[in-house]
Amino acid sequence: MSTKTVIKKVNEHVEQTVTIGAWINNKRSSGKIQFLQLRDGTGYIQGVVVKSEVSEELWNDAKSLTQESSLYVTGIIREEPRSKSGYEMTVTGIEIIHLTENYPITPKEHGTDFLMDHRHLWLRSNRQRAVMVIRAEIIRAVQEFFNDNGFTKVDPPILTPSAAEDSTELFHIKYFDEDAYLTQSGQLYMEAAAMALGKVYSFGPTFRAEKSKTRRHLIEFWMIEPEMAFTDHEESLRVQEQFVAYVVQSVLKNCRTELETLERDISKLENIQAPFPRISYDEAIEFLKGKDFDIPWGNDFGAPHETAIAEAYDKPVFITNYPKDIKAFYMKPDPERPEVVLCADMIAPEGYGEIIGGSQRIDDPELMKQRFEEHNLTEEAYKWYLDLRTYGSVPHSGFGLGLERTVAWICGLDHVRETIAFPRMLYRLYP
Ligand code: 4AD
Ligand code: MG
Known about the structure:
CATH 2.40.50.140, BirA Bifunctional Protein, domain 2, binds 4-amino-1,4-dioxobutan-2-aminium adenosine-5'-monophosphate, NA-bd_OB_tRNA, asparagine-tRNA ligase activity, ligase
């Protein structure tokens, strides 16, 4: 009798006969021995079929297996120090489920467009699997961090009547007889939730109809948005650095194999410990001028600016106190210098760009009304948001971490398209 198991758990079955549902990742043969590279989603193991030890039928079945054919394979698990996983299977039985013909993704190189058109199959590759496992670990660690630190998870709506970030484009949809938009950020609702629960966080999809075709932009991306009552900007920065360090260290602890598969330079990640360096917007402008960038005070930073600043540090860096005119309407002005706001963007090292945007929020109802006017936001649509300042207003701060950019950084990927199973990008909605 054999026990059904998965590749990840073969260490519990050494010298025992087990059955595994698997796909053929690759195959080699020496004439007398066939080596089946098996994968089942949990890991990889080599199955060894020895001609002199198996029936002719089994030998021929093994021979007929092609890349991505599916099967139940039965065999004895052996310790094998020479194999990467440390184990091997001596195959004693094969039950073919489905023979695949002409699998389109072969071990040779393919172009990006081809791979993106076959994303549903490309996901099966070793590297793509590693990215998905690390993404899942990041999500797990995010939730663990906030759950362990007194935050309550709240789910903001996805269909919204108005904009959260007035600086970016919205997806418009019909909501019966009304107009609605897909959410760009749950922040405004999370502020309401913070007034009810103190410390809250959300994790959900957000949508931006941005015509940006860059390595860092998706149309649909996932954001983690904590919001904290009775918390100023400075305290929020401390939460942010603890949080990001915790997530990186969790991946290092729990995803060694996957980081190796991706050939990630682990020493760069080991260094990610709080505190993180800080530089004000003013200092960043001076720094950039020193690097021969022609950028006047008041302009926003683009990717080349962010990369130049990030290169000066080996940890994520906060750029703080941006001019109010290039930031969102809800950010609280610095009381000493009202032309800048109490905000920070966290820029990842190694050129991965902005991973967090955050700020202290305006808590004065009169100033908030003034901002509605300056930004052409109708008081009618935002009345509920003003109510948060009218009834028991408190200093509060929050931030949003972009999951895909964080995955790209931790995995060391040059494009966010590989950080999510089915990326939605400008000009790509298939598959
Ligand atoms: O800086 P953003 O626009 O901030 C907000 O939306 C705030 N309401 C968050 C808050 O305070 N609760 O977006 C936050 C993060 C960015 O730093 C970036 O990591 C990511 O979301 N992001 C994107 N990721 C992928 N594709 C896009 N198009 C993105 N736009 C923003
Ligand atoms: Mg931002």
